[in-house]
Design brief:
about 400 residues, 60s Ribosomal Protein L30, Chain: A, eight-stranded mixed sheet, 19 strands, Spore Coat Polysaccharide Biosynthesis Protein SpsA, Chain A, 2 domains, alpha/beta, five-stranded mixed sheet
């Protein structure tokens, strides 16, 4: 019996602050949604993972999930219930026997909880994880306590919530058909359709990120964990030079900057990204960029330097390493680099799944000295600090 998982990420998530929905905020160097998706993609008993995203979030999702083997995301509906139904409908062609529905904003989900829900579905048509309420509970509808509630039968519920696929599909379709759209979780939809729901033990770490404080705390927790697991600290240096030739822009860190010339090179001549690639390779004790992408090879003619940086990142990930810090300095008289630094940081952060706060980009001139001072070309110097497991 196959198992599908719907990961619901359709909300605006603006209570977490910032311009992005909370599911795309970085925690521990990766977007929240990526941590969640990787947990289900790596689980041995989950056969299909279907993301549901918000309208207009396509580019955010693409950047956050680059490199993951996922089907095309489904665009969510007007509320969570609609989004879940649409995600379930997208799994019909796969005909799973069981389905899990999980909030993308719960990135700390463990393999143990996923396994427990799946296993219990052999004995029940609906299973949800939960935690018993430990605090005294009061019923106070107007701000004044009317009575004390018996907490002995009260639970805080979590996701993933698991169901017999055919039963929850029918329940969601019935709710939509009858205009019942106020359910806050899928267990409530199941209850509406008369499906008994079993509770299994959840995990206190499986919390939902809602506010900016939640996101900050999650970032600190994951970063501390990642750093503690990688005590081998290494630093690499990269240097690159390119001369100018006829053109109308230069490419730096993947950002096109208008100019009266362009940089000459076999690839796109992104001097900054070349230096950074060499810095990461150096920190790993690898050979330089030319070894992996020789200029004599015609397949790299005009190639985007993001390909080279991706290779360095791939080698780092293969050794379970992470980037701690990047420091990049660009030497040029023209064009002016300063106005483009924010875009360059964002581009590198996206490519490396790295918090922009861990990237420094600076620009300076040579005070008209030498070839760079004569505006014959540009240079870049990069330092990368990485952390590896022992």
């Amino acid at each position: 019996m196959t198992v599908a998982a719907v990961i619901v990420a359709g909300g605006s998530g603006l209570r977490a602050g910032g311009a992005k929905p909370k599911q795309y905020h970085l925690i521990g160097g990766k977007p929240v949604i990526r941590w969640t998706l990787e947990a289900f993609l790596s689980h041995p008993h989950v056969d299909h993972v279907q993301p549901v995203i918000g309208e207009g979030h396509e580019e955010l999702f693409r950047q956050a999930t680059e490199g993951l083997a996922l089907p095309k995301p489904v665009t969510g509906g007007a509320n969570r219930q609609d989004s879940c139904r649409l995600g379930i409908e997208a799994c019909v062609a796969h005909a799973p026997g069981k389905i899990l529905i999980h909030d993308a904003a719960r990135p700390f989900i463990s393999a143990g909880v996923i396994s427990a829900v799946i296993a219990e579905l052999d004995h029940a048509e609906a299973v949800i994880p939960g935690l018993p309420v430990a605090d005294t509970m009061k019923f106070a509808p107007d701000g004044f306590i009317e009575k004390t509630v018996d907490r002995g039968s009260m639970w805080f519920v979590q996701t993933p919530q698991g169901f017999s696929f055919e039963r929850i599909l029918a329940a969601h379709r019935r709710a939509a058909r009858e205009g019942q759209g106020g359910f806050t979780d899928d267990a409530a939809v199941a209850e509406f359709d008369g499906i008994p729901v079993k509770i299994v033990a959840g995990d206190q770490h499986n919390r939902k990120l809602t506010t900016s404080i939640d996101v900050i705390a999650a970032d600190r927790e994951l970063s501390a964990r990642l750093f503690a697991e990688r005590p081998d600290i290494r630093t690499g240096q990269g240097i690159d030079f390119h001369v100018f030739e006829a053109g109308d822009h230069v490419t730096l860190c993947g950002v096109a900057i208008p100019h009266t010339q362009k940089l000459k090179g076999h690839s796109d001549a992104d001097v900054a990204m070349h230096a950074l690639t060499d810095a990461i390779l150096g920190a790993l004790g690898e050979r330089d960029i030319g070894h992996f992408f020789p200029p004599s090879d015609p397949q790299w003619k005009g190639a985007a330097s993001s390909i080279f940086l991706a290779k360095a990142s791939e080698l780092l990930q293969a050794r379970r390493g992470i980037i701690s810090n990047i420091d990049l300095t660009i030497l040029a008289e023209l064009p002016r680099i300063g106005p483009h630094i924010a875009a360059m940081k964002e581009r590198l952060a996206s490519l490396l799944a790295l918090d922009p706060a861990r990237i420094a980009i600076k620009a300076t001139t040579t005070e008209t000295m030498g070839a760079i001072g004569r505006k014959e070309g540009m240079a870049a110097f990069a330092t990368a600090t990485v952390r590896l497991p022992l």
